[in-house]
């Protein structure tokens, strides 16, 4: 890995100005600013009375959920998965049956992870996705519910099992994974229903990943763009070229360094190489690229501007980095919909991800807002 480091700023501040509007974002986003609390240590989402300038904020079928949010929500459209972990000494040989040392099934999937993260950060969050009519579907539904995610648009489909993955953790530290796409990849209507597109159009921000069909993402991103709702696409998930038809409706593309390399066919070991790969993304049609660089931090590239860099917020102990990327992207989206500046969004996300790597698992490791703010305030 080439050596480069991003300087670590200790300052976390709240600007009293409305953050500049990212490219392609509408006025709808601009007025979704914060009520700044007199105590600047707290985020206070915009109050319902202050949202009267927004067009229709009431979700069409909000009657389904008496607790529907009044702030334009974060809407995550994506995958939900049951991750079946088995701890083994080695992989079985052909025809062989072996015993695992332990086994555990946890809710996961990038979509579900990011939805829980948004909700745990106290931002009203809807999850739009599909599970099968099986025990894994129940497990995921409970995990999302437990995380406080609005589930009005989580569908149970009868034609496919809930998406699941068998994660074989081997003694030598290697992981081998088999994924069953199930309801994440199948049984989507060819044309996404108006109800689902309505929640997307009324969102404050939409978050997508690549664990559901591109055709679904394209329809969602297009609906969001038409309504002036910003879209962040986390590049994690399937390793296939990104359709231009999708990229043209995406405001911010967020890959980690290896995803950036695969998507562009370029090396991403040094900051210079990363910048060049990002330029390729601009050519592919996206104007902002949020690159996650593991323990090297992150950077937001905006076409025509100097990159905004963010070092990691160092963790006293790094226990498990699973879900760090999902936490980072979701936390960034939350700060952005709350009209934070780009640098503040990066720092908020870095703090959330730093807390995430200190706890085992994906969903269990996602921090709440209070702990993120405490970390940002700490000397
Ligand atoms: N060892 C670490 N200590 C603190 N923060 C970390 C560490 N590793 C990752 N992070 C944070 O998590 C973010 C996402 O992690 P990264 O590995 O880049 O994503 P992904 O999980 O998609 O590969 C990083 O940008 C960084 O802010
Ligand atoms: Mg990584």
From TrEMBL:
Positions bound to K(+): 320, 322, 356, 359, 361, 365
EC number of the protein: 2.7.1.15
InterPro entries reported in the protein's UniProt record: Carboh/pur_kinase_PfkB_CS, PfkB_dom, Ribo/fructo_kinase, Ribokinase, Ribokinase-like
MF (Gene Ontology): ATP binding; metal ion binding; ribokinase activity
Activity regulation text: Activated by a monovalent cation that binds near, but not in, the active site. The most likely occupant of the site in vivo is potassium. Ion binding induces a conformational change that may alter substrate affinity.
Protein name: Ribokinase
Top EC class of this enzyme: transferase
Lineage: Eukaryota, Viridiplantae, Streptophyta, Embryophyta, Tracheophyta
Similarity annotation: Belongs to the carbohydrate kinase PfkB family. Ribokinase subfamily. Belongs to the carbohydrate kinase pfkB family.
PROSITE patterns to which the protein is assigned, alphabetical: PFKB_KINASES_1, PFKB_KINASES_2
Species for this entry: Beta vulgaris subsp. vulgaris
GO biological process, one term: D-ribose catabolic process
Subunit details: Homodimer.
GO CC annotation: cytoplasm; nucleus
Highest taxon, organism lineage: Eukaryota
